[in-house]
Amino acid sequence: MKEVNNFVDHPAHYTSGEIECIDALKASMSHAEFCGFLKGNAMKYLWRYDKKGKATEDLEKSRWYLDRLWAETKSEV
Questions:
Q1: Which of 36, 61, 75, 77 would bridge 45 by S-S if both were Cys, CB 3.0 to 4.6 A apart?
Q2: Checking phi first, is residue 32 left (phi over 0); if not, alpha (psi -120 to 50) or beta?
């Protein structure tokens, strides 16, 4: 895939030891809170994608959070 995914899927600066930040956040929140977090981040990246000069990267990040939200809500059923 494109290099941008290195900054989207598993950025090194979001990992400490064996755990990624996203997993620690999920563990610290209720399911509803975590879904809200994912939704908010997807919205944040959509909001600013055309303002920083990194539109593709921000859209990829938004998609990542939206895909994760989809996976989390899929497990609710």
A1: 61
A2: alpha
